[in-house]
Amino acid sequence: MREWQRLGGFQHHRAATVLVAFRASWLALCATVPERHLGLPIPSLATARAAVDDRGMLQGLVLDPHATENSWWTTVSGFLSPLTEGLASLGGPPPDSDQYWGNAVGLIGEVLRRMATDGAGGNVFDTAVELRNATGRDDLLDLSSTPRGLRSRRRTCCQLWRANVGCCTECVLHNAPRSRRPPRG
């Protein structure tokens, strides 16, 4: 958390805890959503180890290539639950807070959008809806299918803007009333 604060030049402790959950959620979803979408075995996150760089930043997950799971959401939530409990004990939001879980749910659309952009094939919109619904927190992510592909909009803030990183691609602020421009004409 201190590294997020140092890199971003901010002191907001709660935001730092949410950003840790954001990074862990991103890695967990990148490790499981493509396999789920493509009908491959879902890697187990139960024995995942963190790959940390020399600054202490989470860079990736080291997975057992032979360990697989049957339930995507059980795998992801089982990985993130102990983290949210630990972050809460360090002064972050409560473990069941939408601030943490909004990252895990909100990033479903972004992982699948990138897969579609890279030509993964299959119906990414249907997969996104299925995975969002599997979380039991479907209110945290709006999805729509557009001619240009999958559009997702999270319903909670990932806190990247507090770290001066900008806004995520599925930012809850993108079409907020105060950020909409009047129509040209």
What does this structure look like?
It is a single chain. The chain is α+β, with helices and mostly antiparallel strands and 185 residues long. Helices cover 44% and strands 14% of the residues. The chain contains 5 helices and 6 strands, in the order ααββββαααββ. The strands form 3 sheets. It has a two-stranded antiparallel sheet with strand order 1-4. Helix 2 packs antiparallel against helix 3 (72-89).
Low-confidence stretches: 176-185
What is the H/E order? HHEEEEHHHEE
Number of strands: 6
**Quaternary form:** single chain
Supply the helix-strand structural class.
Answer: alpha+beta
> If you compute it from the alpha carbons, what radius of gyration comes out, rounded to the nearest whole angstrom?
17 Å
Strand content: 5-15%
**Percent in helix:** 40-55%
Distance between the termini: 47 Å
Task: Please specify the SSE layout and strand pairing.
Blueprint: H1 2-8, H2 13-38, E1 42-43, E2 49-52, E3 58-62, E4 68-69, H3 72-89, H4 98-117, H5 124-134, E5 141-146, E6 149-154
Antiparallel strand pairs: 1-4, 2-3, 5-6
Task: Provide a short characterization of the protein structure.
By secondary structure, the protein is α+β, with helices and mostly antiparallel strands.
Keywords:
globular, 5 helices, two-stranded antiparallel sheet, alpha+beta, 185 residues, disordered C terminus, 44% helix
